[in-house]
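Reviewer comment 2.1 asked that we show a complete input and output for one of the modelled complexes. We chose the iron/sulfur cluster case, as it is the one discussed in the main text.
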Amino acid sequence: MIKSIVDKIAINENLQQDDLRLLLSISNLDELKTLYETAYRIKLKNVGNKVYFRGIIELSNICEKDCFYCGIRKSNGNIARFIMKEDEILRAAQWAFDNKYGSVVLQSGENSTPKFISFITRLLEQIKMATNDKLGITLSLGEQTKKAYQQWFDAGAHRYLLRIETSNRKLYKKLHPDDHDYEARLECLNILRDVGYQVGTGVMIGLPFQTVDDLANDIIFLKENDIDMIGMGPYLPHHDTPLAQSFNKNDFNNVHQLNMGLKMISATRIYCQDVNIAAATALQAVHPKGREMGIQAGANIIMPNITDAKYRTFYQLYDNKPCIDENSDQCRECLEERILNIGETIGYNERGDSPHFKKRRSGHLANADS
Ligand code: SAH
Ligand code: SF4
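Response of the prediction step:
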């Protein structure tokens, strides 16, 4: 089954939706191996054998939104809410810089108050100054106004991650309350691109009601929207959410979630080629070596958690989050060894920008010149 697709890939023929569906439906072990190896070859050709670390700081679990799947949704009254102090966040960013991580990611629940927007702006300015503008800064702070995105870009952020969650509008509606709007989220991605960010998006994989057709369309969505960076991972239940409470947890299968997550990475690498793809932490939640498996399936980015251990328990988007009681030094050592063990190198002190973004930018410049 996969042979005809591998032949198409070898002669650079574009894959169709049917081909993606077939790749995502593979269950035979030999065929799975061929899929991962094919994607890994394409990864080597486009982004090399280097993994880039983005140290993620989960700076607040205060959220205005109520996504049905997420453990820190605003209606979850069973968690204490926190926002890290400025000096704690700066210390974490400095740790990333001192440990030669090329970039940090600032992530939090969605907060659109003017106070929060200026708090982030100040942080960006300070991180930029303290690290001599050398540290890459990605934001993952949800839907905001153009003004806020622009202000943060001007203050030093240059990448933004905003998952579309699913490209199926009907499924999006099922997973969110009525006041959460797919079109508004899509528009945010367009604004981010216009402002000048490297744009990252992605989906959750293995959601209730999601079909293989949906996932194949998600991959096509990523390419059609000219996305530079892709962050996607398996959906995992959180016991305090309406979505997890709507089905029997025993029906939920980690092996299936892992395999679907890996197949999505491979199919996306094959289809989108020159983008950065993250091996999501959620992969590690379903298998101790999930992130390394993600790299071997075609991903090239890992986002080690560098948040103070004392906050990690309060930032659980799903149950059984890994590394919850390890500090950043422990995470760094175990990760480095794991990456080197699979024959990859680590892009220390490098930002590792998406090659797709660089091509997109030079295309724009060429058009502007002509
Ligand atoms: N509030 C911001 C950033 C934090 S949430 C935002 O929503 O964009 C980051 C991502 O976590 C979300 O985009 C979603 O894809 C993922 N997530 C939330 N709940 C999850 C769950 N139960 N399983 C897997 N991923 C989840
Ligand atoms: Fe808030 Fe993001 Fe969770 Fe939705 S996914 S509830 S926006 S933190």
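The radius of gyration is 19 Å. We note this here for comparison with the apo prediction described in Section 3.2.
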